[in-house]
Amino acid sequence: MSISAQPSTRGRPRTITHERITNAGIEIGLSNITFVGVAAALGVSHMALYKHVPSLEVLKYLVAEEIFKRWQIPVPEAKTADAAALAGLKEYLLDFTASLRELVKNNPGLTPYLLRRVASTQSMINKIRQHHQEVSERYQLPIDQARWISATIAFHCIAVADTVYSVAGRDPISEVDRAAEEAEMESEFAQSMQALIVGALTLLESNQIDTRFHTAQQQASP
């Protein structure tokens, strides 16, 4: 959506809506948002914007929330048999981390709203909980294990992606070198995420074996 940066001086005042505010904020980018900038993009005065959004902090929250709402979390595949559940979960988590990486890459400044629970809005928390529930149901995991593995993978993926893209290309190098550097970093990023996923799944499987063993013992006890 293209938004004019020039205030309207004639005709009816422009309507300030949540959608227009967040669209303008997303186009400007969380890292660059100012009240004056968003107001200019909306074609209104910054004082008019203040009547709808009380502070810059709230403005950033609105934009971060909207970015997260628009993010299409990869959908877990159909429910699988026990033997194939963890193998399917590995492939899903690889897709999940790739999607998260792009979310962070394309939205500088979003990371604090993803990593810090106190910075997450209720709608963001609800979306995360729904995702945990889907992983639990599709891969036959107790909800606490689905929550643990999803949150563990997501936390490290977001943190690493933020570090990678915050430093990539800062030095005065050519565009060709910049592209090569980013490709190399993304390759290493993908390998590190795969290692993390394999390790987390190994731990998860070990815990599942221990749980089944203890359950069988309890059932066999007189």
Specify the overall morphology. Answer: globular
Amount of helix:
over 70%
What is the number of E strands?
Answer: 0
Query: N-to-C terminal Cα separation, in Å?
Result: 69 Å
Provide the structure class: mainly alpha
User: In this structure, how is the largest beta sheet organized?
Assistant: none
Number of domains: 2
Q: What is the H/E order?
A: HHHHHHHHH
Per DSSP, the total helix count is: 9
Give an overview of the whole structure.
It is built from nine helices and no strands. It has about 220 residues and is mostly helical. The model is unreliable at about 1-10 and about 210-220 (pLDDT under 50). InterPro entries: Homeodomain-like_sf.
SSE topology sketch:
Elements: H1 18-28, H2 35-42, H3 46-50, H4 56-70, H5 82-106, H6 111-115, H7 122-138, H8 143-167, H9 175-220
Helix pairs in contact: 1-2, 1-4, 5-8, 5-9, 7-8, 8-9
Which key terms come to mind for this protein?
mainly alpha; globular; 9 helices; 222 residues; disordered N terminus; Arc Repressor Mutant, subunit A; 71% helix; single chain
Brief digest:
This protein has 222 residues and is an all-alpha fold.
